[in-house]
Amino acid sequence: MTELPYLDGNMLDGPLSELFAVDLSTATGRCAHCGSTGPVAGLRVYSQAPGLVARCPTCVEVMMRLVRAPDAAWLDLRGTTFLRFPMPAEPPPSA
Amino acid sequence: MGIVTPGFGGRPRAETPDLPPGQYLTSDFPVLSAGPTPRVPQESWEFVITTETGAEYRWSWAEMMALPQQTPTVDIHCVTRWSKFGTSWQGVSLDTLLDEVETAADYALAHSYGGYTTNLPLDDLRDGQAWLVHTYDGEDLPAEHGGPARLLVPHLYFWKSAKWVRGIRLGFEDTPGFWETAGYHDYGDPWREQRYSGD
Ligand SMILES: [Zn+2]
After folding, report:
1. Which InterPro entries does the record match to this protein (chain A) (predicted)?
2. Which CATH superfamily is domain B45-192 in?
């Protein structure tokens, strides 16, 4: 069996810009620590800090960290299993 | 970005040569926190140094308070750009604690009640450069500033001075801590303006 080819990271630009163009506050996320799922808007964000730290409202573990430098940003999502974004319904596939 | 804004109304650096580049002087003591404030009673508090062999050296509150005490007065520099001059503390020199510890390690990872971590070369905790402090300005260190006890490593950005510190793990490998894994500099020297990874 032949290995499937992989694509370089530039191909992510389209899909990611589509995701990050949506309102993140309408997304839901699953906590990698305790497994509870809830709206991103319900996270507890500590902002009086060197970065933004978003914690799970159930177990208080860190789900997301965002550090902003003048010319770069770091988004750390290791505490998040997934983010779910509501999307416009796609037309049903034509039969 | 809602990160702490600079400019607590200080004087510019040209008039204050003790101010590292990019910093503002403040007379406040801003409270920074990446999570809920742990409340640790002195009776259950302990400090543990774990070496590369797994050996553990523990101090209770009473044991720590019975060690020789020092009263450093130091300038502190937060990576969010405020600096504060002449802060007065009381605590135990890390030299005193490390004198009891048999180790050949190169790196330290401080860990705190509440889960915070930060990494430093072990040499930066020696030679009168670091303290375990429990008193600020003559009063018990308030919980919002890291009490009952925090690290004080004033020659590095203040995120290295772990609040609510519970112990230090020693080893041969440098293990990045909470902010160091999220874009902040591994070492954090304010005089070289080592704020972010790659600076
Ligand atoms: Zn959780």
Report:
1. DUF6510
2. Oxidoreductase, molybdopterin-binding domain (3.90.420.10)
Residue A30 falls inside a structural domain: yes
Give the distance (Å) from ligand 1 centre to CA of residue A45. Answer: 14
Number of domains in chain A: 1
pLDDT, tens only, B11-45: 555 667 899 999 999 999 999 989 999 999 999 99
Per-residue pLDDT tens digits for A14-52: 777 777 777 777 889 999 999 999 998 899 999 899 999
Q: Quick check: is A1 in a domain?
A: no
Using an 8 Å CB-CB cutoff, list chain A residues near B33.
Answer: 46, 48-49
For B191, counting Cβ atoms within 10 Å of its Cβ (0-12 exposed, 13-18 middle, 19+ buried), the class is exposed
pTM of the model: 0.89
Q: How far is the CA of B179 from the centre of ligand 1 (A)?
A: 20
Q: Inspect the interface and report whether the beta carbons of A51 and B179 lie closer than 8 Å.
A: yes
Q: Which of B33, B115, B181 sits opposite A48 (nearest CB)?
A: B33
Cβ contact B171:B120 at 8 Å: no
